[in-house]
Each structure stands twice: as structure tokens, then as C-alpha cells.
Amino acid sequence: MLALSLRGLGMLKRLTILITVIATSCNLLSEQDYGEASSPVPLLKEGVVQPCSEIKRPLNPSDEPTASESELDKHFRQAFDYETAGEFEQAIFHYHLAAQLSECDCDRLHAEAGKTAAQEAKDLWEQQRMAAKPTQYFWGRLQELTKTLPCIEIHN
């Protein structure tokens, strides 16, 4: 009975995160509404100068840095690299830093989705080890959480 209750809470948490990501990306929540959802990162930072419409960020960045790589790009790249290596704590850490550095709502939502997917993959790993295929789970979950974000592109 307790296991079912805990499982239900986990599903409720995931559903709440997904609804928040979708509602925010569709501008259905204002900054004030989202702040009340107890987000650790503000919806937008003061003095934002970069419109989200001009940003395209790879969901699966190359593992090699580019010459024009920003600090934000670096954290997204490192988070993805750590996750694909199964180092979930480091992935969570770098997605957290990316969320803090984000000046664009879409980038911040991307980082928060990565952090959520990495945490879920970590939890899955701790419960079922490799049988759960946590890095495959992460990739599918990350795509699911970011599919409505206009700043995301997937590199083949």
C-alpha cells in the first residue's frame, strides 16, 4: 500500500513538472504564477536582452567544445556528456548551473527539463541498475520534456 502511495506521488510530481513546462512554454503561466510553483530559478532574469526566438540550442550537443562556446553552452554540453556517461550527479549539477545562467525562458526550461530527466534516470539507476537502461530513459524523457520548446533542435 505504501509503495503504491509513493509511486503515485512520483507520478504526480512528474505530471506537475510536465504541465508546468508545457504551460510555461505556451505562455499560459505568468512569471508570478510560475514563481508560486516554488521554482528555484526565476522565470526571467532582470535585464534580459536576448529574445528566445533567436536561440537554437542542440538537445544533444557535440562532446567537443566549439570556438564560440559560451559558458551556458559549456554547461549544457557538459551536462549532456556526463549524463550519457551515466554520471547523473554531475549532469544534474551542470543542468542546474545552466538554469542559473539562462537569460531566456526557453533555455531555463531546457535546463530544468534536463535536470529533471537526469534525476529520474539517477533514481531509476539506483533502483534497477543497468536493467533499467537509465541513459536511454534519460534521452527519451529529455525529448518528451522539451518537445514544445522552440529553442531546441536535435542533432543527428
Your description of this structure?
This protein has one domain. The relative contact order is 0.15. α4 packs antiparallel against α5. The protein contains six helices and two strands, in the order ααβααααβ. The chain is mostly helical and 156 residues long.
Brief overview:
This protein is mainly α.
Spell out the key features of this protein.
156 residues; mainly alpha; two-stranded parallel ribbon; 3% strand
Present the secondary structure layout.
Elements: H1 2-25, H2 31-35, E1 57-58, H3 71-84, H4 88-101, H5 105-128, H6 134-146, E2 152-153
Parallel strand pairs: 1-2
Series of secondary-structure elements, N-terminal to C-terminal:
HHEHHHHE
Spatial order of the strands in the main sheet? Answer: 1-2
Summed up, the domain count is 1
Cα-atom radius of gyration: 16 Å
Helix content percent band: 55-70%
